[in-house]
Amino acid sequence: MDTYSFTKSQELFVRAAKVIPCGINGHFSPAMLVPPTSYPFYAERGRGARFTDVDGNELIDYTCAYGPMVLGYNNEVVDEAAARQREAGDTMGAPGPVMVELAEKMVDMLPFAAWALFAKNGGDVTSYALMVARAATGRKKIVAIQGGYHGVAAWMQGAGHHGVIDADVENIVRIPWNDVAAFVRVLAENPGQIAGFIATPYHHPTFADSELPDQGYWESIRELCDKHGVVLIVDDVRCGFRLSLRGSAEFFGFTPDLACYCKALANGYPISALVGSDALKGAAAKVFFTGSYWYQAVPMAAAVACLDELVRLDAPKRMQDFGRALTGGMQRLADKHGYELRVSGVPSMPYLRLTDDPSLMLHQRFCSECTRRGAYFTSHHNWFMSCAHTQEDLDRTLAIVDDAFAALEKSPEGQGGS
Ligand SMILES: Cc1ncc(COP(=O)(O)O)c(C=O)c1O
Question: Is residue 238 within 6 Å of ligand 1 at its C-beta?
Fold first, then answer.
C-alpha cells in the first residue's frame, strides 16, 4: 500500500511559525502528533467523513475535527439551512427568530432542560455554568475531576500552567473520577461552600483509557448535590448527541441541573449552548455573559437543521454501531498480527491503545502508519465517529489497519508482534 507524504503541510508550517506563535496553536498543534512528519497539518477541503490535505492526500477522518463534524463535512442539509439564513442575515442588530426556535428545540429534546442560552465555544458555556452555579448558591468553590477538561479558561487549567495564577484555581477542588468518598470528604471539609460539581458524563482524559461511571456513581453524586445544595453541571460538550439525543445524563440515568453542549450541535458551525433546570432560570438570567458573535443566526439555523438530521438518522445508534464495527474489526486484526488493542469509552467515541506499551511509542507508531495510509488516527485522544462514515470507509480503514500492522512488525517499536 502506498504511503502519503506531507511536504506541503510542512512547508506551510514553516511559513506559519514565522507569523503565528507555535505555527498552529492548541489542540491542532503538530506537537500533539507523533511523529509529526506522518501527519497532515492543513486541510484543503472536506466531504463526508473524509478531508483532503494541502498535499492532495485524502484521509478518512476519525478526529471529526475533534468532535464538531457529526453529519459529514459539507453536509448539504445543514449547509442549505445555513445558506438560507445567511441570505436573510447573520450577525445583525438583534438576534434572529431562529434563536427562539433553537431554544425550543433543545428544551423539547433534553428532558431536564427548561431553558437554553447560546454562545460559541464549549469553554464559554462551561464558564457560564460555573457563574450560574455561583450566582444561584452565593458560594465560591467548584468540585471538578482530576484530568477532566472543560476548556482553556484559567479556572479550568491547573496551577502552574503558563498564564495561570493561583487565584484562578484556588476555588477549584479536584477529586478523582468515580470517587464518591472523595466528594463526601470535600463536602465535609468545605461546609456550605461548594457551589457546583462539574464533570463529563464519563471520564475521557487524554493519554489514558476512558472510564465509564461505576454502577451507582451518578446516583450518589446526584443525591449528595441535592443534600448539600450543590449545582450538578454535566459537561456534555464532547459526548453530547453521540450517546443519546436526550442528553448523555439520560444515557447514564441521572438528571443534571445544568448541561453544556457544543461540538455535535451544528456540524461545525460555531455555536454552543448551556441548558438548565427551571430552578436555575432566575440565576441564569442574572449572570451577564455575552460576546460579539454569540447571536449569529447562521450557526443557529445550522444547529436546528443538524438536530433534525440527528433525529432523522437515529444518529447515536448509527455512530455506536459504526464504532463497534470499527473497533471490533481492528481488535481482530491486532490479534491476527500478535498485538492486543485495548478499547475503552463508548463505541461512538472510543479511546484505543496497544497494550504492553507504557511509553505509547508502539501505539503512536501504529496510528501514524495508519494515517500515512489514509486513516487519520490520533494516538493520545479519543476518536470520534460520525453519521457520514460508510461501509466503504470501514472496509478501507480495516485494509489500512491490516497493512499498518504488517509495517509495524518490521519497525523497531513493533518487536513483539508475531
Ligand atoms: C468535555 C469538554 N468540555 C469543554 C471543552 C471546551 O470546548 P471548546 O474547545 O469548544 O472551548 C471541550 C473541548 O474539547 C471538551 O471536550
Answer: yes
